[in-house]
Queue: 4 jobs
Job 1
Amino acid sequence: MNALSLDERRSARLLFHSELAAGTVTEEAVFTAPEVRAAVRTRHVPPLPWRVAQAALRKAGRLSPQQRVIDPAVRARRAVLGAAADGPPRVLLRMDEYPHWLAAREPARFGDDAFAPWREIMAAAGCAHLVAVVPRIADDPEQKTGGARDLTDVELARLRQLAADGVVFGLHGYEHRTRFAHPRLHTELGHRSRAGVGALLDQALGVLSRRAGIRPQVLVPPFNTFDAFQYRELAARFPVVTGGPESILRMGFHATPTWRAGSVYLPAYPPLYGTAAEVLPVLDQQLAADTGLWTPVVLHWGWEAQRGWRDLELFAEMIAPYAVPWNTFLDAVERTR
């Protein structure tokens, strides 16, 4: 039997973090279980034709996160723990993005006052989550040239309020401006050298630190895109790198969360990436199934505002007891190195 790689051992520790911390299971029992080895196997970034095929299959519903990610992880936990593996999913809720790029252009729909119901609903429910923050806001992030502005005093005050609520922040790029106009090629990080992407991220971190006193430990790549060869540069700065459905074209389809090159890769895939109305029934099924897994979920406040907030109210009320503070996850990541 081949030995697990360092990243595979780390992924296995993360899958059984609570039990290992409590001493109810040993690393030997975890590392030697065939089901665990299958669930945490590190997959290489596939060639571009494979990535294109994976993205198409995912979109067509033929590449199922349930079958490819959730079911193997559940089998692994139950093979080692038996009935003790059962428990509610540990929801890692991420919200993209604040401030909204249309805040200055359409303040009534996307300005800070329009964002306020998100904060009120989540704070009232006590629903832990991460907010992806844009340090500078492009006037139109879908155009490769144009102006950008700094965070306003009102937006900085909102970030301080969110921090007081216990919200954790993720870095959402620098200006969230695409380098290419074609919708299928939108990326702020992609097609830069490793040195270039590192410099951009350092610049973004510097702006957030100076202006808002924030130093995110989580990267939320703009447009969910970056190049696979850049991953080590991202991992050198962030213990957690997130992704989404668009990441498949660049990285391929991978389990989540999984350790890669010294950082945890945490993509979220539909149907757990969408509106609250789309996500809630899926989480309800996972609650009924007692998966006991780290479960990344992505919402967008602008989408919920356009739907009148009622879906988010229902979502927050139901999911708040299972939403894990991101600092708890970040601590688990550190302990499983």
Note: Residues 6-85 form one domain.
Job 2
Amino acid sequence: MGKRVDSLIYSISEGLELIKRYSNLNDVEENLVGNFVNRKEDNKKSLDEIDNMFNNKMYGYGKGSVFYFLDNKVVGKINIVLEVVKELGTIYIHCLDVLEGLDNQEVIIKELLDYAIAIAKDHKPNEILLGERNKNRLKVLEKFDLYSEYKSLRMYLEDRSKKENCFDLIPLSTENKLEYLSVYNDSFSDMPHGSYICIDEVKEYIKNSNEENYYFMVSINGINIGFMNCEIQNRQGLFDIGLCKDHRGKGYGKCLLETAIDFLNRKNALKINLIVIETNSIAYDMYKKRGFKEESIISYWTKIKWAY
């Protein structure tokens, strides 16, 4: 894919500009992006909402949101997650989308991918991961020797009876925000598809804490050993959990899982869900053993092979 990347970047620099980053768009082009995004939406997004979608920290404030222009309209897009590359060494490429009914869809997908990989390589990551859900696009990717290797899954629980003792929950607050930050990053930064947050994000968690969003540290004998975050919307519960490195391998994972289940039971959630990456085998196996079942596939993932 490297030679195609070089030729595409050269042609863009010469002024063809078929592909542009959101950060470089003018007002007219931003409106064309809005038309593309809203083409299938029942509830149309405003230009401000669309700006928030692409001009944010996750995508490097527009530098990782890429659009393909053809015949005075947007015909394709792709996003590159640049937020965590410094901390985790990983770049995620996802949200590929191409206008329906085009004869040259494969060309557009190939060129968007080449451009996205070029942007990713610029940041010198340890790995580049490509996520895709659409089965037709997955078949196109296979033509480029990009085969899915594993999945991210949404799972649900039927047997909600209590199986283990539960940990104490310490709600996130202004007073303990730095401790929460440390616990979260220690718990999650080394996981497959891990995450890393900064203090501004923790402050947003505090601001957004309500009857739909809950953020906790989990504690045993007064020691914070991990975190638990829960979201409840329309009585549908979704949780995320993690253990600090020093507290793994001690059997705490089952109790932490039970703590999340018990919390959502007490909140009268009608359904309990989680999202897991297959390659996080310890967690995945624990969830299956507890009785969680696969509900849907969030995305298929491919490791991009490249050389600097």
Note: The longest strand covers residues 292-304.
Job 3
Amino acid sequence: MKVTFFGVQPYDREAFDRAGAAYGFEICYHRSHLNAQNVALASGADAVCIFVNDTADAETIRQLAEMGVKLIALRCAGFNNVDLTAAVRHGVSVVRVPAYSPHAVAEHAVALMLSLNRKIHRAYWRTRDGNFSLHGLLGFDMYGKTAGIVGTGRIARELIRILKGFGMEVLANDPHPDERFAWEAGISYVALDELYERSDVISLHCPLTDGTRYMIGDVAIGRMKPGVMIINTGRGQLIHTEALIDGLKEKKIGAAGLDVYEEEAAYFYEDTSDRIMDDDVLARLLSFNNVIVTSHQAFFTREALDNIAHVTLQNMLEFDAGKKLTNIVCPDPVAGMA
């Protein structure tokens, strides 16, 4: 089977080359992101493999199907960049990697929380400049504070275990509450409004759907505690960025840790340091000293890359062999990222 990879970085190629010898696929790598304008790069392929900033919309999928592509293999958990209805219409199967390392993402969320709370990023630059003053670096004990976790999939459950280890009270919200897990973990499922009102730290771990898009906006922020910390390692469009900026300006939001951004495709995974940033919203975010933006790197551990490669290749192997697809994605408005 011939597979065309899009959006490939050097570390992707290393991981797939390391894992791929046993599978025998013919692989062609491209740095460019898949879209309707460059879909011809997949000519002759049986499958394409894409990541979070590739675009598999209806037009792209139509062209892929006309070229004979029968499989879209996502090397990630989220699939909001794929038009699943169009895929079904054109007979193209879609598979994903539902869990490559929930530990990696959960640990990154905690790293953002601790860095923002204890001002590690600011202290780092101060001490390098010979400034050892503590003014402006005051934090708070995580112990005894309340964390609100939106979504309780694999990543969120690992995060909850860590936060409970800090001695935090944890409130959770999920459209499908798991009361057994709640009892075992010592947490409480509550309505979103209550979670917003009571939480000192809010971390988002839900899929991006029509129902969750911009769930954090003016109304939600208005219900939150003054000084709340918001963490997003899920999808950028869960947060309305301009509403977030307003909340930061008004001191309603005390800090924000963002591993994702709603318009990230133009910047994330690329070195743009030699260019003038023309995204005024992102530039404004980066100007706040109580905001940390990382470039969608929460997944980025050795273990996760190896897991992504093996599961993606196994998904392709199942398809090539005509077997039932373990990690198939079907059109379902409530399905999403684990």
Note: The two ends are 29 Å apart (CA to CA).
Job 4
Amino acid sequence: MMVGDVLAGRYELEELVGTGGMSSVYRAYDRVLERRVALKLLHQHFADDDEYVQRFLREARTVASLSHPNIVTVIDRGEHEGQQFIVFEYVEGENLKRLIERAGPAPVERALELAIQIARGLVAAHERGLVHRDVKPQNVLLNGDGRAKVTDFGIAREIEVHRGMTQTGTILGTSDYISPEQAQGRHVDEHSDVYSLGIVLYELLTGELPFTGDNFVAVAMGHINEPPPSVLDRRRDVPPRVAAAVARALAKDPAARWPTMAAFCRELEECLRELRGGDTGAATMVIATPKGRRQDRGPKRRVTVARGRRAALPSLLILAGVVVLAVALAIALTRGGSDGPKRAGANTGAPIHLSATTSYDPYGSGGGEHNEDAHFATDGLQSTFWETHHYAYPDGGLGKPGVGLVLDAGRSVTVRHLILTTDTPGFTAQIKAGDRVGAGSLRDVSSPERVDAETTFDLTNADARYFVIWISNLGPHDQVHVNEVRAT
């Protein structure tokens, strides 16, 4: 087929916009409905191969069954002179891969927005029992408004299928984004799409791929055997919770990833909400507004100041109010000491929610320490845990100053006590804190202690958002666990 040809007496080919091993995509003009469309044409040499024809037709049926704003819509399918074609909505814009190559790492907020849109489209597919199996930025189109639309369901299969194209030994997908189980030719389900989307988000945030190599096999072996580098090793301004979400998506074991694409999507939505300063449940008192700015942007009110004797009663009421406020403030200061108003958890003994998000390994080689397991330290279950790597140095050493686990309060809080439980007692740890995680931003807020099965760290000057359990010696072990962490 060539530009200028008309298929089925209706679709005029205007420009070749992409080609792959199985098909080519043209921008075309629909003469009947007078609009631009995208037309995907199966290569001529596959026309007599029933397997490829059936796969092509299955793509048309698959996408036609999906209706979602983040999935490219199928308009029509047909055949012209023995060649199969599918007609899609035409998305005026570039694909996500070209955006990354052109602009580099995306702002964290924009990266999350795009990943959430992709996830929502995939959730719709998974709810219909379909796994994409080739999630990559090349298969994400961006329209003029910046909305992401997932396309190319050419190798999508029903989740419950165990034979045919998903049989053992068959490898489909793109090596840069392929899941370990897919690279090994094992059974693929929605966890594989979660992994691939994790790679896409990693690339959006860092501008790089976690695994590279000279050929398909080299990259695939990286996905199978090598621990993924932490996003924080490549980009320090990414919130630890976002990095932890990516790390969990990239777990080698499918069962250790997010249980569903919907769960991954919800976590990314929560990360975005926090990044945008969403409601944290904290009350705020505005003491003063900077000169020249109005705190209240509602309608201005007309204020009339009474004069003479008529002003006496309002003045007395105002004075009485001031006295009451002064007394209340004095009581609050008396109860709270010289520190003034309380921050969350201050001197109350009330629980403070912390989320374990990622490891902290500033002296490591860049792979992190089981980042995908960090969340187990605050999941409320004593039977699960985050663990360090194995070390074989004498006297419990790590061959470096230490390694840590990052805990995120979601906002700045005052922590008085941090309670740690472990099934590997005997190691040495202390608590560090700061409003961000990075070199020079953390301070010691407890002394080092030998950790028992349950140990309470008493913290001082611990007003921060992030808290790090810093492990400096493994004691009698070559690897230690943090089973659960609580704070008050």
Note: The first strand starts at residue 6 and ends at 7.
